[in-house]
Amino acid sequence: MKQDHIIQRVFVEITVNNKEKAMSIKEDINSFLSVDVFPQIEKYINALEYKLEGYTLQIPRLELDLNVKSSSLNVELKDKIVQLFEEKLSEMTGPIEILNQETENDSNTYWISNQEKMVKTFIYFLEKGDMPWWNPYKKGFSFLEPEVFDAMIHSTNFEKSIINVLPKQYVQNRIINQLSNEQIAQLCLAILRNKELKISLESDIINYISKLDHTNRLIIWSLILNVVSNYLTSSNNNLQDYIIQQISKLEVADFLQIKTNRQNLKSIIKIFPFIKESEI
Fold it and tell me: How far apart are CA 277 and CA 82, in angstroms?
């Protein structure tokens, strides 16, 4: 599979003692890099793709100190840049089992599997509301596609990654507004896989939620996501009291009527089967 090679940003620092020469270089440097340098770098990276099968090599920062005296944008300079790039990249492309962890300062090279990349892309989207630079819209992962979404939420590092951001209200809102009811249910159940907390999000519940207006749909999913988040991050796991408190707040605020609406009450009890009707 052919990989996409993406350079997020390029900084070029050139020191000359002639203002006219500096302006000339400024005008020509972009064309020089795009036409002469980057195609050669692309060829070298293409030759490394056999090592990247199923993985992406991410290099947060790569500095090339050319230390050349001439200020001409010529073949000699191009060859020098490409040579240094190849040398640097050769040092960085060690075995996957060695370069497989992001460092705390996020400054070293690391391998990332396609599954990990999907998860990182999704978490970035939930946090920022946009796609990251390494996942361009036309060629990147589309995590809303059913097969991609299913693979992502069942990947080994998904649970750990989502737990870190799920308590944030804006993340929950983005999940609710961007994902379908079925996908939100899949996400919740994937997070709770092999956990003691059991919630029911079967087809009749999804059908019930799909018939709610936007405000009440938001309230129901917010309640569910808050319960899941509270269970995973709080030391106080008395979820029964927590849910009853949340329901009371909704009643007082005159939002979703649960105690006085039989259908709403039945649905809440079915979602959280450990709660008894008499306790609400």
Answer: 71
Tally of structural domains, the chain: 2
31 burial (CB, 10 Å; 0-12 / 13-18 / 19+) is exposed
**Residue tagged 């994937």 (tokens):** 190
Q: Is 121 exposed, middle or buried (0-12, 13-18, 19+ CB in 10 A)?
A: buried
**Quick one: 83 and 24 in the same domain?**
yes
Residues 196 and 260 occupy one common structural domain: yes
Pair 28, 118 in one domain:
no
Per-residue pLDDT of the chain (280 residues; tens, 9 = 90+): 445 666 667 777 777 777 787 788 778 888 888 888 888 888 887 777 666 666 777 777 778 887 777 777 888 888 888 888 888 877 776 655 444 444 444 456 667 788 888 899 999 999 999 888 777 655 555 778 889 899 999 998 899 999 999 999 999 999 999 999 999 999 999 999 989 889 999 999 999 999 988 988 998 999 999 999 999 887 766 788 888 888 887 766 666 666 556 677 778 888 998 887 666 6
Place of tokens 């999907």: 118
- What SS3 string covers 119-172? HHHHHHHHHHCCCCCCCCCCCCCCCCCHHHHHHHHCCCCHHHHHHHHCCCHHHH
Q: Both 104 and 119 in a single domain? A: no
Whether residue 140 sits in one domain with residue 87: no
Q: Cα separation of 237 and 231, whole Å?
A: 6
157 shares a domain with 45:
no
- Structural domain of 244: 114-279
